[in-house]
Design brief:
Strand content: over 45%
Number of helices: 2
Shape: flat
Oligomer: single chain
Order of helices and strands: HEEEEEEEEEEEEH
Structural class: alpha/beta
Radius of gyration: 20 Å
Distance between the termini: 56 Å
Helix content: 10-25%
Largest sheet: 6 strands, parallel, barrel
Strand order of the largest sheet: 7-8-10-12-11-9
Number of domains: 1
Number of strands: 12
Length: 190
């Protein structure tokens, strides 16, 4: 049983500061400040200048922190970064993500992402994404390389629209498949 478990059993909120934790932290309320952990599980989780490999939370606040894998009901990230997130709702401010998949809306303010997929609306202000897939995109001074959306409102610069994105994806898939096929054929002949 670790420090967080002991505090949780006593009904206290674990606040862990300036620590390197190669352990799992599980509690209802977690505040991790200037530290790191491998896995964090809780209802309300806050990381300030901290990081974790895996986070599972109902409500997650990342402030100047980062994570590799996140599953959260609501993700709120300010000046943070993450590799992959699956969430119901996401609010990103001055942050960067590689992959965000949301069942609901995503709001981005001066943020960037490689891939954004949302069943709800995506609202962007001075933000960008390489691949953006959503039902509705509302944007101001934003951009996307590949944009697939039923409705687009506002000022967004898309390099490729829905039709071009699908054609590019098909062509890239064919080229990648042929390259792999030729590489295998060449490596077998040696």
């Amino acid at each position: 049983m670790d420090q967080a478990d002991n505090l949780a059993e006593m009904g206290e909120q674990p606040e862990l500061k300036s620590e390197t934790l190669d352990q799992d932290i599980t509690a209802q309320e977690i505040n991790l400040i200037r530290g790191e952990a491998h896995t964090v599980r809780g209802i309300n989780v806050t990381l300030r200048q901290a990081g974790a490999h895996t986070i599972n939370a109902e409500n997650l606040i990342l402030r100047q922190g980062g994570a590799v894998k996140v599953e959260a009901g609501h993700l709120e990230m300010t000046q943070g970064g993450l590799v992959a997130a699956k969430t119901q709702k996401a609010d990103l401010k001055a942050s960067y993500s590689t992959l965000v998949i949301a069942e609901g809306p995503i709001h981005m303010d001066q943020s960037g992402a490689q891939v954004l997929v949302a069943k709800g609306d995506v609202t962007m202000d001075q933000s960008g994404a390489v691949v953006l897939i959503s039902r509705t995109v509302k944007a101001e001074h934003s951009g996307a390389t590949f944009l697939i959306a039923r409705e687009v409102q506002g000022d967004i610069k898309a390099t490729f629209g829905p039709k071009e994105s699908l054609i590019f994806g098909a062509a890239a898939g064919i080229v990648a498949g042929l390259t792999c096929f030729l590489f295998r054929m060449l490596s077998k002949s040696r």
